[in-house]
Amino acid sequence: MTNVAIEARGLTKQFGSILALDRLDLVVPAGSIFGLLGPNGAGKTTTIRILTGLARPTSGSASVAEVDVGFDQPELRRRLGYLDQDPRFYGWMKGRELLELVGRLHGLSDPELRSRVVEMLARTGLTGAAERRIGGYSGGMRQRLGIAQALLHRPQILFLDEPVSSLDPEGRRDLLSLIAGLGGEATVVFSTHVLSDVERICDRVAILDRGRLVAEGPLEALLAAHARPIYRLVPAPRQAERVGTLVQRLRAAPWATNVTAGEDLVRVTVADPDAAAAAILPLVVAADVSLDSFERARPTLEDVFLELVGPASPDELDGRGFIRAREASPR
Amino acid sequence: MTGLGVLMRKELLEQWRTARLPVVATIFLLVGLTSPLVARFTPEIVKAVGGSQFQIVLPPPTVADAYDQLAKNLGQFGALIAILLAMGSMATEKERGTAALILTKPASRASFLVAKLVAIATTLGVATAVAAGGAWFYTFVLFEPLPIGGFVAAVILQWLALVSYAAITFVGSTLTRSALAAAGLGVAAFIVLGILGIVPAVGRYLPTGLGGPARSLALGLPGVDVVGPTIAALVLIGSLVLVAWLAFRRQEL
Q1: If pLDDT is split at 50, 70 and 90, which confidence band does A321 have?
Q2: Are residues A73 and A159 in the same domain?
């Protein structure tokens, strides 16, 4: 296996006049846990569907585990595991039977199949439900079964499309730990719009926005390159008027790009960290505001995300709250 | 055909677990048992329904009437059930997303299709055999035994006709994501083939044309041309599978 697990070159996907994916170039190093980030409708699922051979790109090409991606390629699928964002199974089957079916399709020998099924049921907390019909599983159980079937054959590359969306906090924590533990063993592509999950387990991140790749790289490098410092001020109670004055002055400062003020928190995003460091406390003193806490926070992925993607305006949202994909320009 | 064996096993298990096989076999058994009964007691039934005001003279029922009743019932109920079995086989899997589950594993699309049609054909085969067994027994009790070899051959031809209707519906189910549309195609084909079957030059090469040779075989009549209609049915089924594969291999899931 080379150092590159996935390579996409100019991947474009058009649905009628809608451009869902726009000339996506992507390189995923082998062994990385790769977060595919973006708001709803950004093109994350479309990217995964193309890379797993479920959808065909309008143009461009890709290779996964050194196999050119295309339709009807068992050789490609032998090397990958896949979990859909809304995993569907045969309701008449038992959980154990589904894993056995998947293992047999992957050509596992009987002894290996038996041991892997037992192991995956245990790792996903489904041992007790193994002999129950999948039709009676909850959404979280289905998602865990989806993880089990995706990991069963020890894939080289694992595609997880919103894998924790149906899980309770405990299941979410367990699954994220499971995925984090795969680092180095398999390459994991993990799509989500939950930024904290990505920060927790991914070592590389790509941010998609309306079908375009807007940033890609190691998480720390992205944070260093794009995030601006944030100041968080927690005023002492009962000084609303003075806090109001402070907020006005902060908003007027040339180094402040965004000031949000709640009842007990003032959050200041700054464009010029040095100027802000010199001026912010004198402004607090001048407004005669007492603070319970003051911190210069480490920039988070959310800050990077908001800077690169930005909140969608109301006319950019469709009826379901998804960001509309861009119209394809005439060629 | 990667994964064909595994998928066939899964499909056959599904036919059993979802109760399709036992339900269809039971319906066919009832069809098989009642066909000779209806043939045997039709004169009495007509007399009882008509009362003393009507005088309808019917010839005494024969073993041929028993077979004809079975063939008619299988041709109608059987075809309808073949359409019902095939209508959702592909459309539902695509719609629910279970096709994507399987086809992200090392299984070819050809295997996925063939396994499904084989499972449907197996269910129809088991059910037809059950119906035939029941019909043969009651025919023996009420009339006389039908020649076993010819009767078995006739039933195989009947089954081939049912698989043809299932294959037509299966293509509809592959082309669309709607089980209802697939059923519509199956029913339309059933009607059109029924009409075309009247045309002698064409009719003998259609699924409906299998009925004539099957009757001759079952009743031990001479001068049966089985080869032409059988090859025509097999070619039709093969062509339909090919059409389904050509369409399915290009579909996004």
Answers
A1: very low
A2: yes
Out of B2, B14, B100, closest to residue A92 by CB: B14
- Per the domain annotation, does A89 fall within a domain? no
Rg (CA), chain A: 24
CB-CB neighbors (< 8 A) of B14 in chain A: 90, 92
A165 backbone dihedrals φ, ψ, rounded to 5°: -65, -30
Whether B14 contacts chain A with CB within 8 A: yes
A residues 31-50 lying closer than 8 A (beta carbon) to B: 49
| CB-side neighbour CA atoms (13 Å) of B221 | 15
Name all contacts of A252-260 with Cβ < 8 Å and 24+ positions apart: A253/A279, A253/A283, A255/A279, A257/A228
> For residue A43, what is the DSSP state?
S
For the beta carbon of residue B69, count every other beta carbon within 10 angstroms: 22
Determine contact, residues A195/A306, Cβ cutoff 8 Å: no
A80 touches chain B (CB under 8 A): yes
CB-based contact, B244 to chain A, within 8 Å: no
Q: Over the stretch B189-214, which tens digit does the pLDDT of each residue have?
A: 999 988 888 887 888 888 888 888 89
Taking the C-alpha atoms of residue A48 and residue A25, their distance in angstroms, rounded to an integer, is 13
The whole-angstrom separation of Cα B114 and Cα B91 is: 15
pLDDT digits (tens, 9 = 90+) for A95-137: 999 999 999 999 999 999 999 999 999 988 899 999 999 999 9
Confirm whether A8 is domain-assigned.
Answer: yes
CB contact under 8 A, A71 and B250: yes
Number of domains in chain A: 2
Contact A104 B6 (CB under 8 A): yes
Whether residue B144 has pLDDT greater than 70: yes
Q: What is the ipTM of this complex?
A: 0.87
Other C-beta atoms closer than 10 Å to the C-beta of B238 total 11
Residue A46's domain spans which residues?
4-79+155-225
Query: Can you list the alpha helix ranges (DSSP code H) found in B176-250?
Result: 179-196, 200-203, 211-219, 227-248
Tokens 């995030």 found at? A227
Report the residue from B97, B109, B250 with minimal CB separation from A84. Answer: B97
**CA-wise closest residue to A35 among A220, A311, A210, A269:** A220
Shared domain for A73 and A202, answered yes or no, is yes
Percent of chain B scoring above 90 in pLDDT? 73
A34/A43 Cα distance (integer angstroms): 15
Task: For residues A33-54, give the mean pLDDT.
Answer: 90
Q: Are residues A237 and A204 in the same domain?
A: no
Backbone phi, then psi, for A306, in 5-degree steps? -65, -35
CATH number, domain of A213, equals 3.40.50.300
For residues A290 and A69, give the distance between their C-alpha atoms in angstroms, rounded to a whole number: 61
The residue type at B162: L
Only one residue has tokens 């009507």, namely: B54
pTM for the full model?
A: 0.81
Residue B99 contacts A where some CB pair is shorter than 8 Å: no
User: Which is nearest to A88 in space by CA: A154, A137, A152?
Assistant: A137
